[in-house]
UniProtKB/TrEMBL annotation:
It comes from Micromonospora carbonacea. Belongs to the isochorismatase family. Its EC number is 3.5.1.19. This is nicotinamidase. SUPFAM superfamilies: Isochorismatase-like hydrolases. Transmembrane segments: none annotated. Residues 4-186 form the Isochorismatase-like domain. One of its GO terms (molecular function) is metal ion binding. The keyword rRNA-binding does not apply. One of its GO terms (biological process) is pyridine nucleotide biosynthetic process. Keywords: Hydrolase, Metal-binding, Pyridine nucleotide biosynthesis. InterPro entries: Isochorismatase-like_dom (IPR000868), Isochorismatase-like_sf (IPR036380), Isochorismatase_Nicotinamidase (IPR052347). Pathway: Cofactor biosynthesis; nicotinate biosynthesis; nicotinate from nicotinamide: step 1/1.
């Protein structure tokens, strides 16, 4: 069997200077790149997810409530939707876009350019174990890890390569992942509450 690294939403809008910035996002991008360079054989496959909004309806709020609605972010065709420049993308085999017309937190809600979904892509390559990294620990990383476990993949979140929005939502996310049997290593960067 094989293993894969899932890089979640390491995009400009979720890093410092973006419209929905998470403190430490740029550092996470650089850290992922360093790990990929230092351990090139650690994963058989590397994939990434992108928030990729066209018109996600109530997911964008004016004003946002920061619970169910958010400032406009990762709009298709804008610089904010692109990968952060500190993220080395050379190893990424497939990108799974999510949330064109609805809120979407999990990478397993996304699809590749040919329409293939993440779980199907992984299974087609014999993947049975995944490591999850990216932004934000308490939202899209959490949702992706929970869905990976639900789909039957042995799932580990490398918390050192994640950044969280706030301590309160991080605590809820860590408990949820632990309860679902997701393994976790390290400590995430955590922004201010």
């Amino acid at each position: 069997m094989a293993n894969a690294l899932i890089i979640v939403d390491v995009q400009n809008d979720f890093c410092e200077g973006g419209s929905l910035a998470v403190a430490g996002g740029a550092g996470v991008a650089a850290g992922i790149s360093r790990l990929l360079a230092a351990e090139p054989d650690r994963w058989d496959h590397v994939v990434a997810t992108k928030d990729y909004h066209v018109d996600p309806g109530a997911h964008f709020g004016n004003p946002p409530d920061y619970v169910d609605s958010w400032p406009a972010h990762c709009v298709v065709g804008t610089p904010g939707s692109e990968f952060h420049p500190e993220l080395a993308t050379g190893r990424i085999e497939a990108i799974f876009h999510k949330g064109e017309h609805a809120a979407a937190y999990s990478g397993f809600e996304g699809h590749a350019a040919d329409g293939e979904h993440l779980a199907d892509w992984l299974r087609a390559r014999g993947v049975d174990r995944v490591d999850v990294v990216g932004v934000a620990t308490d939202h899209c990383v959490r949702a992706t890890a929970l869905d990976a476990a639900r789909e039957g993949f042995a799932t580990t979140v490398l918390l050192d390569l994640t950044a969280a929005v706030a301590p309160e939502t991080l605590d809820v996310a860590l408990r949820a992942m632990e309860g679902a049997g997701v393994a976790m290593t390290g400590t995430p960067v955590v922004g201010a509450a």
